[in-house]
Amino acid sequence: MADMPLTAYKILTQEQMDALEHERVFLGAPIDLADGYIHLSTAEQAQETLEKHFAGRTDLWLAAVDLAALGDTVRWEPSRGGQLFPHLYGPLPLDAVTAYSEVHHEPDGTLRLPVAG
Fold it and tell me: Most buried residue, 32, 34, 47, 62, by CB count within 10 Å?
C-alpha cells in the first residue's frame, strides 16, 4: 500500500519499554498476544488509541516504528470505525524503532510524537 505511512507508533508501559530496551525485542502486550499481532497506530490514530486504551496511565512511552524495516510482517487491517490500522504479525525489534520518548502533550493538548536525534 504505497500511500500508507512509513512510520507507526506503539504505546508502551514503562515495564514494556524497559523490556524492549534490555531484550532488544518486544513480543507484545497482553492484548497483542491475545489478538495474535502487535497493535500499532498511525500518527493520526495515536491520540485516540491513547485516550481509549490508556486513560489515566502516567507510565507510558511512545515508540516510532519504521514499517518498511518490518516488511511483510505488517498488515493494514480495518479496526476502530473501519479505519485501517497497521498490525505487526511478529515481534517488534528495537532496530525497527527510530525514536521513543515518554508520552507528552503539546500545549494545545495534542500528543507529542517522538523525534530522532
Answer: 62
User: Which amino acid, residue 81?
Assistant: G
Query: Which residues sit opposite 8 in a β-bridge?
Result: 65
The answer to whether 101 and 37 are in contact (CB under 8 A) is no
For the chain, helix, strand, coil in percent to 5 are: 35, 35, 30
State the first-to-last Cα distance of the chain, in angstroms, to the nearest integer: 28
Compute φ and ψ for 50, nearest 5 degrees.
-60, -50
pTM of the model: 0.94
What is the rounded CA–CA span in Å between residue 15 and residue 73? 24
Tell me how far apart the alpha carbons of residues 15 and 3 are, in angstroms, rounded to a whole number.
Answer: 34
- The arithmetic mean of pLDDT across residues 12-40, rounded, is 97
Contact 83, 30 (CB under 8 A): no
The grid cell for 98 is: 527510530
CA gap 44, 9 in Å, rounded: 10
